[in-house]
Amino acid sequence: MTATVYMADLRSSFKDNLFTKIARLLERVGLADGIQPKALTAIKLHFGEEGNASFIRPILVRPVVDAIHALQGKAFVTDTNTLYVGTRSDAVSHLETATRHGFNFPVLNAPVLIADGLRGNSTRSVKVGLRHFSEVKIAAEIYNADALVVMSHFKGHELPGFGGALKNLGMGCAGREGKLSQHANVSPKVANKRCVGCRQCLAWCPAGAISLNEESGKAVIDNDLCVGCGECIVICPQNAINIRWNETIPVFQEKMVEYAYGACHGKRERSFFINFVMQVSPACDCYGHNDMPIVADIGILASRDPVALDQACADLVIAAPGMPGSALGAEIAPGGDKFRVLYPEVDWQPQLVYAEEIGLGCRSYVLEKI
């Protein structure tokens, strides 16, 4: 089985700009086949943490809204609350952050909803019967939507290696309980030689699992309290916190994929995926900062198959020359695995292998440039 992945490069002219290219991508993936008149259509995004600037621009969402409206569908733009403490951990602060980042009705021509409610506990149970979960907890308004368009900023990530359509589906469409159950077996550790006791990780930890040792002044993580969200790893300015690299990383990836499977429940044939391989930052948009891109902007890709789409995006980033001066350091030759350079102990491929195994999509693809 081979899937088709459509790609628009970023060359532009007055006759063919990025907006017309996005519209053409939606036409090629068959949006018209999945959007019926009055269909409530969720456009799943990541609104970006306060201080981050690498998320998908709101004006690039508007062509998707317009395409849905042209088919007489009813579009809404949505995200879910975060597990960690930040500016998107409840619906009120989340909507405030989204508005400050430009996600509002005048720009989008669609309302913005937080899919899992005020505190992240508005969910629906979906039976999946897979390796790790018999059922998953999906954000209620993702579950209730008639159709789904997943728009993802493709970038690096410290747990799955990269974040694309599968992560936006699996982690991004889960309620708080679902996020916790995916992360639960991942426990970081503190390198005492690097820790300076700055307390930034204490303030960031959503579970209150980090404290300072009174004698050493170093951070200590209580493994019994730790929820395994991994956010402290990147927030530490001294790089003093690291994952305990063991079998839990592929397990985390498999759990994330099972949630991705559940997020498409009841609308797999009415689900569409767009990855923006632009401003490819080394870490997630969940942080209140974004480092410089690791490669030059590549393009916008779309598919009905999230597995093939993520595989194609990963292949393109790997094939591209690395950006001098970026987090890649000297490892910038074309063909080098950028994600393994960023996160040497993380193999990003198990998520794609498992997603293919459970029937979420296929890794084999044909790249068709439009």
What value does the Rg take, in angstroms?
A: 20 Å
The number of helical runs is 14
SSE order, one letter for each helix or strand: EHHEHEHHEEEHEEEHHEHEEHEHEEHHHE
Overall CATH class of the largest domain: Alpha Beta
List unreliable stretches of 5+ residues: none
**Strand count, sense and closure of the main sheet?**
8 strands, mixed
Q: In total, how many domains does the architecture comprise?
A: 2
Q: What's the CATH superfamily of the largest domain, by name?
A: LarA, N-terminal domain
Task: Give the terminus-to-terminus CA distance.
Answer: 22 Å
The chain-level mean pLDDT equals: 94
Task: Quote the beta fraction.
Answer: 15-25%
Shape: globular
* Strand order within the widest beta sheet: 4-3-2-7-14-15-1-16
- CATH structural fold name of the largest domain: Rossmann fold
The CATH level-2 architecture of the largest domain is identified as 3-Layer(aba) Sandwich
Give me the secondary-structure category. alpha/beta
Description:
- The protein is α/β, with parallel strands linked by helices.
- The chain folds into 2 domains: 3-183 and 250-369, LarA, N-terminal domain (Rossmann fold, 3-Layer(aba) Sandwich), CATH 3.40.50.11440; 188-243, Alpha-Beta Plaits (2-Layer Sandwich).
- The chain has 14 helices and 16 strands.
- An 8-stranded mixed β-sheet has the order 4-3-2-7-14-15-1-16, sandwiched between helices. A two-stranded antiparallel ribbon has the order 5-6. Strands 8-9 form a two-stranded antiparallel ribbon.
- The longest helix is centred in the C-terminal third of the chain and has 16 residues, at 248-263.
- It is globular and about 65 Å long.
- The mean pLDDT is 94.
